[in-house]
Design goal:
alpha+beta; 4-stranded antiparallel sheet
Length: 153
C-alpha cells in the first residue's frame, strides 16, 4: 500500500482509482456510491490532480487524490463493510512525526556538567555583551515617559 501513496502539498494522499481498488470497487461504482456527497467533503479531504497524475484515465472526471480525512469520510459514506479497510488505509496515510510538542526532551546539558558550564559561559558572555544596550533603551524609555508626565499633568 505504501507504493500507492503520493505526496501533494505536504499531504499524503491516494489516487481515486487506487482507493476504489482498495475498497474492491470499480471507479464508477465508487463515485456512484459517494454521489454528490463528494462536494460536501472538507476542502482538505481531497486534491484535484494535474494531468501528470492523470495518465491512462478512461473517464472524463478529473483525477482526485484523497487525503487521510477524505479516506475516512469516504469509508463512512460507503458503510460499515468498508470501515475496517478505511482504517487500514488511513493508517498508511498517517503522518508520523519524530517529536511532539507535548513530549519535551530535556537538554543534553542537564546531565553533562561540561556542556552545562560551556552553555552558561556562553550565555553570560551574550548577556554581558547586550546588557548595556538593553539598559540604555530602558533608561531612554523612562526619560521619555517622565517628560510626557511633566508636560501633561
Amino acid at each position: 500500500m505504501a507504493a500507492l501513496v503520493i505526496k501533494i502539498d505536504g499531504d499524503k494522499a491516494l489516487k481515486d482509482s487506487d482507493l476504489a481498488a482498495l475498497f474492491e470497487l470499480s471507479l464508477p461504482a465508487l463515485y456512484a456510491s459517494i454521489g454528490r456527497k463528494l462536494w460536501d467533503l472538507q476542502p482538505r479531504a481531497f486534491h484535484k490532480l494535474s494531468q501528470a497524475h492523470d495518465r491512462g484515465r478512461q473517464d472524463a472526471r478529473p483525477a482526485l487524490a484523497f487525503t487521510l480525512a477524505g479516506v475516512l469520510l469516504v469509508a463512512g459514506i460507503l458503510g460499515e463493510a468498508s470501515l475496517d479497510s478505511g482504517a487500514d488505509i488511513a493508517h498508511a496515510l498517517k503522518t508520523r512525526r519524530r517529536a511532539s510538542v507535548h513530549k519535551k526532551v530535556p537538554a543534553r546539558r542537564v546531565d553533562d556538567p561540561n556542556k552545562s558550564a560551556h552553555y552558561n559561559e556562553a550565555k553570560r558572555c551574550l548577556i554581558a555583551k547586550h546588557l548595556p544596550a538593553l539598559t540604555k533603551r530602558s533608561q531612554r524609555r523612562r526619560r521619555f515617559a517622565r517628560r510626557r508626565i511633566r508636560r501633561h499633568p
